[in-house]
Amino acid sequence: MLERRPTLDAEDADRSYVYMIDWRGRSMTDAAGVSEAVAAAGVSTTTIDFMQAGRREGAGVLPDGKTKSSVIQIKDEMRSNVWLPRTAFLRALSSGLRTAEAAGRVSLLHNTEAADIRLGAAPAPGPASPSSPAASRPAITVTATDITTGASRTFAPRLLVGADGMNSAVRAALERHEEEERGAGAAAAAGAGGEGRFRPVVLDSPAAGLRFRVLQLPPNAPFRRPPPGGGSGGEEAGRLENGRFGKVVGVRAPRLRALALGLLPLRDPAAPRSANIIVPPEHEVWAQTSGEALRDFLQASFPQLDIGALMTPQQLAAAATSRGGVFPRPQYLRHFTAVVPQPQPHAAEPAASPAAASGVVLLGDAVHCFPPDLGQGVNSSLADAVALVKALDAAGGDLAAGLPAFEAAAAPEAAALAELMTFSYPYQYNQDPVARAFWTANFLMRMLLNKVAPWAFEPHSFLLVQQPIPYVEALRRAHATTQRMWALAAALAAVAAAFLVRAAMGVPPS
């Protein structure tokens, strides 16, 4: 395993977000024997218990500091999810890795990245020698570099797994190999047509393009609130408790100046708290490029917080200079495996067995990536790993059979999940209040219809994704409910029209 960071749980201010591990993720943690470690490091919830607030209904801790508690039933209360910081999750996984390393089954190389990947290399010219028969020459070679020393090592894996993100170097190697296989002319034609076996299908989403920045707050961050009874006896300190969801709402302002902070729960009451700012790229917060400017902007936005006391000058400067991250457009691959046959031997050598073929497979964000609307980035990636292992086990380790079987099962899931991301919950960031109001009405209508006629109408897709069903099935049910809602609307419109016509004609109601 090649890992660029010095340790698995190395801190990264721009990645200090909180994961939600659901039943899909638990399928992998169960298989790896780390589910207890994950649960011990996180907060298990069946509902979203928000620290709510004051003058604006449904908002968080407001500028006047007034607060109340509220439980939001916007998830499937029958299923418990675990919320924990990314570093805590990786630390829990590392316990399983250490066991595998001690058994000699895994070698984890830190500060290391793949510098060069070659697929399907032809045998060297000339006669083979007994010490280097052509049939033993690798179909896959990976040159890895230690980024601290510059030292290089070369590997010849039988199976190369690319779990290296949306800008995957392994996927790029697959594209190069495809072009070499088809020839320069065919590759140019494919490039002109925008086609290619390993090129992603890119969709659109109202959340795509939003930028996020993570602020580090102290544990149980205090905020100012008025004393009981609204007297003038000074301000009391409320606290954004680590173990609860929280939202801090800024002062009323134009859309490109208004801010809110979202906080996800932590188990450790003494751990620093991450607060997320998610806004359009043209928002004024991105123009604050010094620590002092960012402090003043945040203080003007959040009078209920003492920004200078909550964040050090060094933290403010680091946050101001960080460009944060950008939510990608939903995208997926139709193909993400390749069987690479062994190089053809010389005539004097026996042919390699088809079962000896090498293979390449992509997992996780290298196959499908999208905004974090549904909390499925990490869970779908973990589910990929489980599905790959099952396919290879079923094929008895034969990559030529196991990899195509994995792709056949996982490709429809990747496509369905990417499509779900385009409409399921993209307005939660309040980037478009009008569209969010329509989304909320749609959500409530589906929930009402499901209560009245569950045999005909499914819950909202946000809840369907949490059920133990494939993404393909969640998408099918969501679309089927949409069609029935339109049919119901048409029927009601027809009845209303008939009633109006009869009334206009003076026909009494029957």
How are the SSEs placed, and which strands pair?
Blueprint: E1 18-21, H1 23-32, H2 35-41, E2 43-45, E3 48-53, E4 67-72, E5 81-85, H3 86-102, E6 112-119, E7 140-146, E8 152-155, E9 159-162, H4 169-182, H5 184-192, E10 201-202, E11 211-217, E12 222-225, E13 236-239, E14 245-249, E15 260-263, E16 273-279, H6 291-301, H7 307-310, H8 313-321, E17 325-326, E18 331-332, E19 337-340, E20 358-362, E21 368-369, H9 377-394, H10 399-421, H11 433-452, H12 461-464, H13 471-504
Please describe what this structure looks like.
The chain has 510 residues and is of the alpha+beta class. Among the domains are: 13-125 and 135-160 and 333-344 and 354-421, FAD/NAD(P)-binding domain (3-Layer(bba) Sandwich); 433-504. It has helices at 23-32, 35-41, 86-102, 169-182, 184-192, 291-301, 307-310, 313-321, 377-394, 399-421, 433-452, 461-464, 471-504; strands at 18-21, 43-45, 48-53, 67-72, 81-85, 112-119, 140-146, 152-155, 159-162, 201-202, 211-217, 222-225, 236-239, 245-249, 260-263, 273-279, 325-326, 331-332, 337-340, 358-362, 368-369. Strands 4-3-14-15 form a four-stranded mixed sheet, with no helix packed on it. A three-stranded antiparallel sheet has the order 1-5-2. A three-stranded antiparallel sheet has the order 6-7-8. The longest helix has 34 residues, at 471-504. The chain is globular, with a radius of gyration of 27 Å.
Question: Can you give me a brief rundown of this structure?
Answer:
This protein has 510 residues and is an alpha+beta fold. Helices cover 35% and strands 19% of the residues.
